[in-house]
Amino acid sequence: MKPRPNQAMVDPVNIVKAEVIDGAAIEQEKQKIRDEAAARERKKREEQLRKQREAEEKKRQQEEAKKREEEKRQAEIKAAQEQKRQAEEKAQKEADARKKAELERQKAEEAKKAAEKKAEEERIRAEENAKKLAEELKKQEEAKRRAEEEAEQKRLQAILEQEEAEIQAEQERAAKAARQRELNTLLSQYIGAIQSKVQSRWRKPPGTDTSDAYCKVYVKQAVGGYIEEVAVRQCSGGDEQFRKSVEEAVWKSDPLPAPPDDELFQRELIITFRPS
Question: Where are the beta strands (DSSP E) in the chain?
Fold first, then answer.
């Protein structure tokens, strides 16, 4: 015997279709509920915003009213202060006018007293001037005589001082010239001493012709003749070996001879070196 098919096996398509239809209806119902909830929420928010705007508007109106009241109060205070200031200014002007009038009265009295005093002083001064005039004429004559004597003495003194100044100037020129001659002699000795020491330290490079050669060397020295820098500036004749031998000879001359006089010391020197 064949088994009898059940209902699910007989009509599976119809069952599935029924389930789909029921699910869509449920989803539509859920969406409707969500839409209604969203609408209520929007309405609630709109109501809250409306109340908030009304509260803010009410607060703004209250603040404006308060501000107008404060401005009115400040205007009244300012008007009262201005009225007080004007009254004080008026009182001050009246006091200043009274003070000015009193000062003018005092000045007038003082001017009168000063005029009377001046007139008396002028009378006394006129009498004294007449007396002094006679004495002054006598003094002028005496002063004239003394001035002539002093002028003559000054003229003679000036002649004497000029002669002494000329003698002193001549002595100073002679002393300066003698000092310069002495320095020139000492300078020649100083230069000779430096050149002699450099010459004694120089060694002729082998195979180098130095018969007509010479070099000018820049030397920077410290106190005591200690050499700080050597630079061969110019050479005539000779070759590079000759140039180096001259530079070495200068370095070997450290320290340089001391000058016979402190005035001759120079930190920077130009030495002319000749092999002969």
Answer: 214-221, 227-236, 268-273
For the question of whether the overall pTM of this predicted structure is more than 0.85, the answer is no
Question: What tokens were used for 87?
Answer: 């009254």
Instruction: For the chain, give every domain's residue range.
Output: 77-276
pLDDT, tens only, 219-236: 999 999 999 999 999 898
3-state percent breakdown (helix, strand, coil) of the chain, nearest 5: 75, 10, 15
- Distance (Å, rounded) from C-alpha 83 to C-alpha 25? 86
Residue pLDDT, tens place only, 133-187: 889 989 998 999 999 999 999 999 999 999 999 999 999 999 999 989 999 999 9
- The CATH code of the domain at 77-276 is 3.30.1150.10
State in Å, rounded, how far the first CA of the chain is from the last one.
Answer: 153
CB neighbour list of residue 86: distance below 8 Å, 6 or more residues apart? none
CA 115 to CA 31: how far, in whole Å?
119
